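Annual report, structural modelling task.

Input specification for the guanine complex:
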Amino acid sequence: MKRKLLIPKQIITVNSKNEILHNNAVEIVKGKIERIVSLKDFKSSEYDGDILDYRNYTLIPGFIQTHIHLCQTLFRGLADDLELLDWLQRRIFPYENSHTKKSLRASVRLGLHDLLTGGTTTLLDMGTLHHQEVIFEELIASGIRAFAGNCMMDKNELYPTFCETTDWNLKSTFDWAKSFHNSNNGKVKFGFAPRFVLSCSEKLLKETKEMMEDFSGSVFHTHSSENKSEIETVKRMTGKENVEYFESIGILDENTILVHCVHLNDNEVKTLRTNSVRVAHCPSSNLKLGSGIANIPRYIKEGISVSLGADGAPCNNGLSIFNEMRLAALIQKPIHGSTVMDALTVFRLATIEGAKALHIEKEVGSIEAGKKADLVLLDLEKADQPLQLDDEKIYSSIVYSATKENVRSVMIDGKLVMDAGRCLMFDEDELIKNGKNELQQLLKRVHV
Ligand code: GUN
Ligand code: FE
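The model returned the following structure:
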């Protein structure tokens, strides 16, 4: 494979020193960052590879989102202004339960389009109960880096027809994990995804955790402590708070990603820390569903892993990481003071901290020699951005002012998936046409 030299305006490395490099380029060989090259004495006429000239754009690592529901993208705007349990019972469960392979495929493609064009290059997806192979097929076809798994549910009092037996869940999970863990040259890995306590028996949770041992490098991904009514129900069922219950059945460790963690007591926060549990923070979902505000500054201060995710399209209602970064910063300031969750801290949550949560920080999350070339180019030379873009202000621009409109090009494993503002993996018009058609048919199958 020919070597490529990507020349940006500047490189936001997100390395341990948070270096920002000017007059440097990134050399890419076989999908990896071979080296960072000083351009001081560089003569392009003497370079024997391809030169990718992006001198007007800022190079950053691809964003990493640690909680997504691709299967829900089709339902964007169809479940507004409801709190979690109503939202699930009256909308999301009936909709998800009505997916055919075709409607699921349409949903996943719409979601991947939204994510890729917003600069997300790695995601952790929660999947759905049926037809999970469709999600894997689309993840592989899109080229995105992903952890994904079928959403496990062996009980469902809110919507009883949307679940399967414990044995069915375990068997199908094992089969999907065997087929897709480390697929697409290791770019796609399995994320075991028991949905939440209200949809999972203790046997299912425990045996899933045991099954993980056969799949090194996978993660255990579940919702926890999102909403007060949900937690009350967990308490009635188990006699314990959500995280305390998880600890009591032995499923918490450094491979566990708990999504939300909005309402925790002091003991639960300690439990997260001592078990090295990862927290996936989804601020727009937490606000839109009225769930509350997680004490993220405290978690970070206590050394708990925190990363970001948009959750599903019907609870945010957009999958852009820029929304999540901005909200992650802003919502804490009235509570903890304006100095918390500064732009650099938040930008790291969306990049290297996401990589650490998934244990892939040796591969992605920063721009350093040896890592995969998962890269994003931003055009920050805009009238709506800070005009004095010195090193400190660059994070302000990305976290507080930028949107996905500023994303120009996106590369995964050194391959462009978006360039010059255009998605190279999907035809947007076709996605809309097909999505509308599938949604129309789905809405005829379900009455909500
Ligand atoms: N808890 C259980 N299922 C879901 C879901 O689909 N979305 C959110 N936000 N919380 C959940
Ligand atoms: Fe979720």
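The chain has a mean pLDDT of 97.
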